[in-house]
Design a protein that fits this description.
Layout (H helix, E strand, L loop, with lengths): L1 H30 L14 E2 L4 E6 L7 H10 L3 E2 L5 H14 L6 E11 L2 E6 L24 E4 L7 E4 L6 E7 L1
Parallel strand pairs: 4-8
Antiparallel strand pairs: 1-2, 2-8, 3-8, 4-5, 4-6, 6-7
Bound molecules: calcium ion.
Length: about 180
């Protein structure tokens, strides 16, 4: 009985994961197809919207949050900021095309102030945190030492606060 329960839960999980992959594949192919970045020197980046081009990085060396942001600054931008569902889908599709298996990436969100019961998140590009997509149970401020934010915890596109020293892939954005 217990074995059957485990098998059923595993099957359900696989089906849900498969359904999500199918949905994502559809979204990324049909709704958010690749559009090359029109900015000179950024032809291998993709257009996120009329304002930004982005590029996902997932290869050695993986970087901690500070180093990832510094790398994005070297490209003339910042870690990506996300302000609406369209941008979120664009960012997720860019990650998905690079790594069809779901893996974590740094995005530019970080905890800038931590007063008691008053937490302020900001984006490294200086924009306001006006859209949030936390994964269930996050942010959990584990050990009061999770001041940076990664994407793709448990599901594509859902966010987790994490210790900034973890090394991750990352997504940069530049203004067009
Ligand atoms: Ca967390």
């Amino acid at each position: 009985m217990r074995f059957m329960l485990v098998v059923t839960i595993c099957l359900l999980g696989a089906l849900m994961a498969s359904a999500q992959e199918t949905y994502l594949s559809y979204m990324c192919d049909i709704v958010h197809p690749v559009e090359a970045c029109p900015k000179e020197g950024k032809e291998d980046w993709v257009k996120l919207d009329d304002q930004y081009c982005i590029k996902a990085f997932f290869s050695q060396p993986f970087l901690n949050f500070t180093a990832a942001e510094a790398t994005c600054v070297q490209y003339g931008g910042h870690l990506v900021s996300i302000h609406n569902i369209q941008q979120l889908v664009g960012v997720v599709c860019t990650m998905y095309r690079l790594t069809p298996d779901r893996v974590p990436y740094w995005i530019g969100l970080y905890l800038s102030f931590n007063y008691e019961d008053y937490l302020v998140y900001d984006w490294t590009d200086g924009t306001t945190a006006d859209f949030l997509q936390w994964s269930y149970g996050q942010p959990n401020y584990f050990n009061n030492n999770q001041n940076c934010v990664e994407a793709n915890l448990n599901e594509w596109g859902f966010w987790n606060d994490l210790n900034c020293n973890y090394e991750r892939g990352y997504v940069c954005s530049v203004k067009i």
